[in-house]
Amino acid sequence: MPSIDVCFSPELLPLSDLRGKVAVIVDILRASSTIVTALGEGISHVFPVATLPECAALGQEQGCLTAAERDGVPAAGFDLGNSPFSFLTDGRPHAGRALAISTTNGTTALRRSHAAAHIVAGAFLNLSAVAGFIRSQQRDVLVVCAGWKGQFCLEDTVFAGALAARLQHGFDISSSDATLAALHLWQQAQADLPAYLLQSAHVRRLNSLEASQDFEFCMQIDTYAHVLPVWENDRLVLAQGL
Q1: DSSP for 43-59?
Q2: Structural contact between residues 155 and 146, judged by C-beta atoms closer than 8 angstroms
Q3: Per-residue pLDDT tens digits for 25-76
Q4: CATH second-level architecture of 4-233?
Q5: pTM value?
């Protein structure tokens, strides 16, 4: 029976063997939520990169949109910040374009997970798509929480618990204390997810930047139930056939 494990921070990835596994990269606030929204709203593909210079260079070389933030604030000199609402404007003006994005936590987690057999981006927004893909693969799974600057964060771990709850019949969740802890947090949170996650340090940090609208949007479950960003040829593209 395949298993589900949770890595609470990219800094802990050296302790995990990703070979042959599905890596689910999650940065609820906000990189993975933004990437899911971007692809769901017509962006053709996404280049997640670790540094701002890489992001700027891709914008010039590929002629793509650029999005970047540091410490929750849009970085100067880029087309967009790191908000899903950038892709929810009337008329979908960005549809068909590529996107290069660099964020404080999420894109670094994506780049560090390159050894996995499959890499997908997960969020509450596409929880069903992630769970369905994992069922179809029947491989061991590692949920990689982007965290905050190498530290544990509550919202990413609660997502890992929500995914474990979806997959607990048919996948081994009992051999990892990290997965069990994430599941217990989800069981506490699920009745009122936004209210529960208002306790989170990162949520309070984001709301202090007047980004509460982003928080509320990212708490929605399955707004993009058929959108799955998958890693192919150094970019994230929309999985077909979901």
Answers
A1: ---EEE-SSHHHHHHHH
A2: no
A3: 999 999 999 999 999 999 999 999 999 999 999 999 999 999 999 988 899 9
A4: Alpha-Beta Complex (3.90)
A5: 0.95
